[in-house]
Amino acid sequence: MSAGHQISMPFAEGLVALLTALGLGGVLTAWVQRPSRRAVNATASKDEATGEAAVITAIASALTGTTASLREEIERMQDTLNEFRQRVAEAEAEVRAAVAREAEQARLVADLRRQLEISHTDVVRLRTERDTALAAATQKEGEVRQLKAVIDAHARATT
Fold first, then answer.
1. pLDDT at 142
2. Which residues of the chain have pLDDT under 70?
3. How far apart, in whole angstroms, are the C-alpha atoms of residue 114 and residue 110?
4. DSSP character string of 54-102
5. pLDDT for the residue 53
């Protein structure tokens, strides 16, 4: 197109050409400014990675809290276990003391039984001696009565 031809163009054609150029320029500008698929995919991947990182961070934070809670629970259980061990040791000491007391009492009971057997034997012997002494006393009383009767008879005979 020559410069003269452009000047002779009617106004409407110039306006259409201008609008077309502006429209084509707008389309070209929009097309150039539009992000590429690669950029969109990269942004989406970045957003996804950021989301995954946030999830991983949240999980790590939760696991850290859980780990701390588990440590506290383990410490509490160890304290309880140590307390139980102490109680068991004390109970074992009490059992040993009770067994020793029981053995001492069994020895005392055995000694008392032996003493009871000795005492029973002594009672039986003393009863036998008493019965023998009573029998001897009864016999002596009889002899004394007989002697008294003889003395009385002799005293009557001499009087």
1. 94
2. 1-47, 49
3. 6
4. HHHHHHHHHHHHHHHHHHHHHHHHHHHHHHHHHHHHHHHHHHHHHHHHH
5. 74
